[in-house]
Amino acid sequence: MKRALTGIKPTGQVHLGNLLGAIRPALGLQQTFDSFYFIADYHALTSVEDAAALRQATRETTATWLALGLDPERTVLFKQSAVPEVCELAWILGCLIPMGMLDRGHAVKAARDGGFDPNVGTMYYPVLMAADILLYDSTIVPVGRDQKQHVEMARDMAIKANHRYGEGTLVVPDVSIQEEVAVVPGLDGRKMSKSYGNQIPLWAPEKQLRKLIMRIETDSLGVEDPKDPDTSNIYNLYKLFATPEQTANLRERYLAPGMGYGTAKQELFEAVNAQLAGPRESYEEWMAHPSRLDEVLAAGAERARKAANQTLTRIRTRVGLT
Questions:
Q1: Can you list the pairs that 96-99 forms with residues at least 24 positions away whose Cβ atoms lie under 8 Å?
Q2: What's the count of helices (H) and strands (E) in the chain, helices before strands?
Q3: What's the CA gap between 267 and 297, in Å, rounded?
């Protein structure tokens, strides 16, 4: 079975955009791939400075994936830092590539464009990400377009290692761009994003969830005015949670007089809450028992280290470290 790998950075509050754009598509992989999912706490160190906050975010991220259906028996779920071999491989890979490759990384460019002097971790981020991918002999890496460059860099490093040390030193992964991933509108109609401050937190309590949905921006059309569903933030979010029949019904009511935006918002709340009520309860149960989360991560780390050591033993022999 082909092996797929997904990394989840434990920073910021998970929102509905993350659920529809990344989490659900990634969870689908565990049905057809030998899947490795890791909590990218090493990567988080480029921006998170508070140790307690990082530990809490790591548990929250773990609980989120478990509550939404990740099966730790089928999928290897682990904390990146529990497999420190990834840092050794990152060093080996770093010795294969020119500095210019890192200087062209989009994260470095974005930092500089924003007036920031990127730290060394930000510069080295693509190498560590390549090590994440290559350490587990991943054959496919599903990413959004913004991460395509990093997977291509991992491919380049694997090809270079194989050229220098012999074919089969590292598995060359394929990138899978998730074109079908939905663009989820936020409260203001722009793409839902923490950077815009327009997100709806995934685990908001029911009352808060309703309050936030009632804040979604609309135009000034009244109850008796027909409305264009395709330009409505409410409708475009509703169709991502409702059944086809429910979506068709709401569309008809948009196009006819007699429905106000308040009614549409209430139906959106009900559709979203219906899908999140069960997982929200599961999430709260996981978070109430942090030792259980730690046990899941420890069991996953044991399985991940077995796979990692097979790869690292192979490459250490090839480069002359054994």
A1: 96/157, 96/160, 96/161, 96/164, 97/127, 97/156, 97/157, 97/160
A2: 14, 5
A3: 38
Beta bridge partners of 176: 142
* Among 2, 41, 22, 54, CA closest to 180: 22
Q: Is position 201 within any domain?
A: no
Structural domain for 213, as ranges? 206-283
Answer yes or no: is pLDDT of 131 > 70: yes
- What pLDDT, on the 0 to 100 scale, is given for residue 118? 81
Nearest residue to 254 (alpha-carbon basis) of 272, 224, 227: 227
Give the chain's radius of gyration (CA, Å): 22
In CATH, what number is assigned to the domain containing residue 142?
Answer: 3.40.50.620
By three-state DSSP, how is residue 148 classified? helix
Question: pLDDT category, 194, cuts 50, 70, 90?
Answer: confident
The residue-averaged pLDDT of 226-239 equals: 95
In whole angstroms, give the CA distance from residue 318 to residue 166.
Answer: 8
**How large is the average pLDDT for residues 109-131?**
85
Q: At 210, list the tokens.
A: 């309703």
Asked if residues 57 and 11 have their Cβ atoms less than 8 Å apart, the reply is yes
